[in-house]
């Protein structure tokens, strides 16, 4: 069977599922698949055959629909997510990949924000993926100063399940930077949840080893780079947590608790932002 015949059969299987389950499937991604053979090729590469690849893409379409991905915008998230730069897109790595950074030390398990955080993560990932025209991206996870207070096994299980069931090969690698030794036990537990066929995507480095992946002039200053691109900018349409929480119907006590938790992180980012002008 020719490569184009495989793609055509794959597309037919997905469109057949879409026609029977429209309410559960993301329309925008179906349209992207119809226009872009590259998306299909990545799922074929991950699953090695047409049926399993199509099933994986259907799972992805349902996952994106469940998290309302096509209807999300910056306005759906509190301004503090952007002000902390907890997840952001930046300069390319040495391989030419678009790169998404995650600063895990700023993550805390917050009941009110559980789904919102997960939406934010996949929203940012999708933006980087679109920017690369679905050609591949890299994720660098900054683990500096991460401790047990940043650990959330429910979130880890969700992430690994999504990674296994929905992720094609458009993620070229995930770099874990400066994993604290005390957190190695936690990492071993998380690693056990990872699909074995994706384990090769995980890479580790410490200190100046990060320059093997990203040139100094393209790396954020907080990681020892020289790039002055401001990744702390807040979109004008975003509301600060106090107003965001009020719109969600949260009590003042709930809002105050989150603000208190985030205060040291925001102060740290304010100090980091000043370094961009030095």
TrEMBL record:
A Pfam short name: CRAL_TRIO
Xref: PANTHER family: MOTILE SPERM DOMAIN-CONTAINING PROTEIN 2
Species of the source: Dermatophagoides pteronyssinus
SUPFAM superfamilies: CRAL/TRIO domain (SSF52087)
Transmembrane segments: none
SMART domains on file: SEC14
Domain of life: Eukaryota
Protein name per its UniProtKB record: Motile sperm domain-containing protein 2
Cellular component GO terms held in the UniProt record: endomembrane system; endoplasmic reticulum-endosome membrane contact site
InterPro entries assigned: CRAL-TRIO_dom (IPR001251), CRAL-TRIO_dom_sf (IPR036865), ER-organelle_contact (IPR053012)
Classification of source organism: Eukaryota, Metazoa, Ecdysozoa, Arthropoda, Chelicerata
């Amino acid at each position: 069977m020719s490569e184009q015949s495989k793609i055509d059969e794959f597309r037919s299987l997905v469109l057949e599922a879409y026609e029977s389950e429209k309410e559960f499937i993301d329309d925008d991604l179906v349209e992207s698949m119809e226009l872009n053979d590259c998306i299909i090729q990545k799922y074929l590469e991950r699953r090695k055959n047409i049926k399993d690849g199509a099933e994986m893409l259907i799972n992805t379409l349902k996952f994106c629909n469940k998290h309302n991905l096509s209807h999300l915008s910056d306005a759906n998230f509190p301004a503090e997510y952007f002000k902390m730069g907890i997840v952001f897109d930046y300069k390319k790595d040495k391989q030419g990949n678009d790169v998404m950074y995650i600063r895990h030390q700023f993550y805390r398990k917050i009941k009110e924000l559980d789904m919102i955080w997960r939406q934010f993560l996949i929203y940012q990932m999708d933006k980087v993926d679109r920017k690369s025209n679905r050609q591949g991206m890299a994720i660098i996870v900054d683990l500096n100063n991460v401790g047990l207070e940043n650990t959330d096994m429910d979130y880890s299980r969700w992430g690994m399940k999504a990674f296994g069931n929905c992720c094609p090969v458009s993620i070229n690698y995930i770099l874990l930077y400066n994993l604290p030794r005390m957190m190695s036990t936690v990492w071993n537990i998380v690693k056990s949840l990872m699909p074995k066929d994706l384990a090769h995507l995980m890479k580790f480095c410490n200190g100046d080893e990060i320059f093997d992946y990203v040139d100094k002039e393209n790396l954020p200053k907080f990681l020892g780079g020289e790039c002055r691109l401001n990744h702390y900018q807040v979109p004008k349409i975003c509301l600060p947590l106090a107003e965001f929480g009020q719109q969600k119907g949260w009590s003042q006590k709930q809002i105050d608790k989150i603000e208190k938790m985030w205060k040291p992180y925001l102060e740290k980012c304010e100090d980091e932002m000043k370094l961009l002008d030095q």
